[in-house]
Design a protein that fits this description.
- This protein is mainly α.
- It has one domain (6-292).
- It is 77% helix and 0% strand.
């Protein structure tokens, strides 16, 4: 049985990956209207990793890393942040933030399937019910007449599914990989490595880099929130949870994030929110209950 302090940390960590990460769809959507996607992501992770290492040094933590841990960090950084974030932000040029979050809600399904094929882990009946409800909820959301698929939207959808599959595999890999034991240090290395890779991609494809002083106020605030809350707080919480609870439970953030993203997209960006969307969001949350509950 986990001590009370650990339970509180787990609850706070779930709040971070549920609510804060659900908000990052909005912040990324605002930022990508002005900034190139890979430059945006590389700048975000440069600032976040610098802050993380500064905090680690001040608090007296060792930054040492083994060759094996570094190799694993490179692999995870690519799947989580280059593909899972940089490519995902690029896809937001083609789809609404809420719609993108809905597509990402298929992650728990991919996680369970990967665990079944890679680890030969048997899926529990309640997990299967939860995933089924999640998929049904997503179907209700994307089958609405208002969401007409055109060429650009199709590109965005394909990019997002590529990101989700990579993120799902990385989630399974991290749960048993040799990485720095300290979650803050592990996150810092992943972000620093991703920053380098994203910068290279941005340079190769010819993105235009700009100074934060030239950004609009909305983009500056969005970047600030992405760095502090989305990267520093939520991603550290995510790495912590992958080591403390089952991978499929951590993956349930993909069911809650769309609900948060839908509401924020509707409220801030005037993205469409219908009665069918609200019903579907409720079904997604019921799916989360079935996957996470023990009773």
């Amino acid at each position: 049985m986990k001590p009370k302090s650990s339970k509180i940390l787990i609850i706070l960590a779930f709040f971070a990956i549920y609510i804060i990460w659900g908000s990052t769809y909005l912040w990324n959507k605002i930022a990508v209207t002005e900034l190139p996607a890979f430059f945006l992501a590389s700048f975000r992770f440069l600032c976040a990793s610098t802050l993380i290492f500064a905090i680690a040094i001040i608090s007296g933590k060792k930054l040492s890393i083994t060759k094996s841990q570094f190799k694993n960090s490179v692999f995870v950084a690519f799947l989580f942040m280059v593909s899972g974030n940089g490519l995902f932000v690029w896809a937001l040029k083609y789809v609404d933030s809420g719609f993108a979050a809905l597509l990402a809600s298929t992650q728990p399904l991919f996680v369970l399937l990967l665990m079944r094929f890679i680890d030969h882990k048997k899926m529990k009946p309640k997990s299967i019910i939860g995933v089924a409800l999640g998929i049904f909820g997503m179907y209700l959301l994307v089958s609405q007449r208002e969401l007409v698929t055109n060429g650009d939207t199709l590109i965005g959808v394909l990019l997002i599914f590529t990101c989700v599959i990579g993120w799902s595999y990385a989630s399974v890999f991290v749960s048993k990989a040799d990485l720095p034991k300290n979650h803050l240090i592990s996150t810092g290395y992943q972000m620093a490595i991703a920053c380098v890779m994203l910068s290279i991609v941005s340079f190769v494809i010819g993105e235009e880099w700009s100074s934060p002083l030239n950004w609009s106020t909305n983009v500056q605030w969005s970047m600030f929130l992405l760095i502090i809350l989305g990267s520093l707080v939520a991603f550290t919480a995510f790495n912590y949870l992958l080591k403390e609870v089952s991978t499929e439970k951590v993956a349930t953030s993909s069911y809650v994030n769309p609900v948060v993203a839908l509401l924020l997209g509707w409220y801030v960006l005037d993205e469409q929110l219908t009665t069918q969307s609200l019903i579907a969001a409720s079904i997604l949350l019921i799916g989360v209950y079935f996957i996470t509950s023990k009773k």
